[in-house]
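Fold this sequence, please.
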Amino acid sequence: MELVRATEAAAIRAVPFIGRGDKNAADKAAVDAMRVFLGTVNFDGLIVIGEGEKDEAPMLFNGERVGNGKGPSCDIAVDPIDGTSLTAAGRQNALSVIAVSSRGTMLDASSVFYMDKIVTGAAGRGVVSLDAPIGDNIRELSKATGKPVGEMVLAVLDRPRHAELIDAIRSAGAGTRLMSDGDVAGGINAARWQTRIDMCVGMGGSPEGITTACALKAIGGYMQGRLAPKDDAERAGAVAAGLDVDKLLELDDMVSGDNTFFVATGVTDGGLVDGVRRQGPIIRTESIVLRSKSGTSRRVIGEHLASKWL
């Protein structure tokens, strides 16, 4: 609940900026709120995946210590708004996100911004691979799940770099769900049996990839990733940081151990959770809380007195 309070606060503070076209203002409001609440959490948190670098304080930067210093030592991934552009445009699927794992278990991929990813439910384990053509992956997952190829839907970020991938998916006979942003929600929905998304594929942010991995540990999903340096300088920086940019990363390579938490509160409505809503004197939030050790998924509905926030 301490973590939920932090994502709820970030989501609520972002609301005045929904649809206003200023993603930086929305992000700053969410960052400031999350920082305050994280400072009260009973843990010794080290931000492995942060919101900004140290010289850009007061951002939640990589290497910053959060929490009250008591309790367990943890690695932290934070994204006060996953989908700042979505928020600024008033579109769906913007989230406020925190992921937590035991200290030393979260891959620090901060030196490489992008990562190739493939995410499915548990049925994809040993069935799909980043090294296989997308058409083969679709057909093999179809066999494993018993779902006809023509009924399969793949979530892909709507980017020019994915034009060939999108064409290949459709040529294989499957459909696409194009996302303007927010591939954390896309990955989680690909692993949940309650949604129409069967797979999430393509190149997205490596921080979002590691954060998604924390969630998949709790819901039994499957994921592979491979870091994708954008140029020789970034590749050299990754090597200097001890990263193998050619390695096919399995879930345990991204987040090892079996004690992860993932918390997300909706900023705007989406397929994972509802966004923040004002209902008379009440501000309503919806959050999802996932824990790998117990394999539980919980929904948390918060009703907050608006007078405390306005």
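The radius of gyration is 19 Å. The mean pLDDT is 93.
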